[in-house]
Amino acid sequence: MRASFALFLGVVVLSLLNAVIQSAFRLSGTPVLVGALIESVLFLVLGAHMRAGRPWARVTLASVAWVFVVVSLVAVYGLNGEWGGNLRGLVMFTLVAIVAKLAMIVAATLLMYRPSVRAYFTEANEARPVGAK
After folding, report:
1. 79 Cβ partners below 8 Å, 6+ apart?
2. Structure pTM?
3. Looking at the predicted structure, is the pLDDT value of residue 83 above 60?
4. Angle, to 10 degrees, between the axis of helix 2-24 and the axis of helix 30-51?
5. DSSP 8-state class, residue 4
6. How far, in Å, are 7, 43, 60, 133 from residue 94 at the CA level?
7. Alpha carbons within 13 A on the beta-carbon side of 18
8. Nearest CA-CA partner of 19 in 90, 73, 107
9. CA distances from 100 to 85, 94, 105 (A)
10. pLDDT band per the 50, 70, 90 thresholds, residue 131
11. What pLDDT, on the 0 to 100 scale, is given for residue 11?
12. What is d(CA 17, CA 94) in angstroms, rounded to the nearest whole number?
C-alpha cells in the first residue's frame, strides 16, 4: 500500500516538473501545466482516501490512472513532430519523464491489487462504523 502511494507521489512530482520545464522553455503552453495540476490533485486526493482504506478510492484511482496513461501516450505521439526541432534535449526529457510516469502508474496500479492490499481494504472497511464515509 505504501509503495503504491509513493509511486503515485512520484507521478505527481514528475508531472509537475515536466509541466514547469515545458512551460519555462515554451515547448508547450498553459494547458500542460493545468493538466498536470489536475492530475496532481486527483492523485493526491484519491491516494489519501486509498490510504484511509476506502475501496471506492482504489477503484477510482486505478481508473483515473489509466485515463492518464492514455493521455500520456497521446502526448508521446504528439512529440513525434518535435524531434527535428532545436529543442531536442527538452523533447527527450519530456519523453523520458512520460515513460517513467507510465511505468510508475502501471506499477502502482498493480501494487494496489495485491492480496495483502485487498486484506488491508477489507480490514479498514470492517473497522469503519456503519454509515461512516
Report:
1. 91, 94, 95
2. 0.80
3. no
4. 170
5. H
6. 18, 20, 27, 39
7. 28
8. 90
9. 23, 10, 9
10. low
11. 92
12. 10
Q: Find, among 121, 126, 131, the residue nearest to 51 by Cα.
A: 121
CB within 8 A of 78, min separation 6: which ones? Answer: none
User: Using 50, 70 and 90 to split pLDDT, how confident is the model at 61?
Assistant: very high
| Nine cell digits for residue 8 | 503515485
CA atoms within 13 A on the CB side of 42: 19
Written as one string, the DSSP assignment of 41-110 is HHHHHHHHHHHTT-HHHHHHHHHHHHHHHHHHHHHHHHHGGGTTSTTHHHHHHHHHHHHHHHHHHHHHHH
CB 103 within 8 A of CB 20: no
Phi, psi for 22 (deg, rounded to 5): -60, -40
Report which residue type is found at 64: V
73 alpha-carbon distance from chain centroid: 13
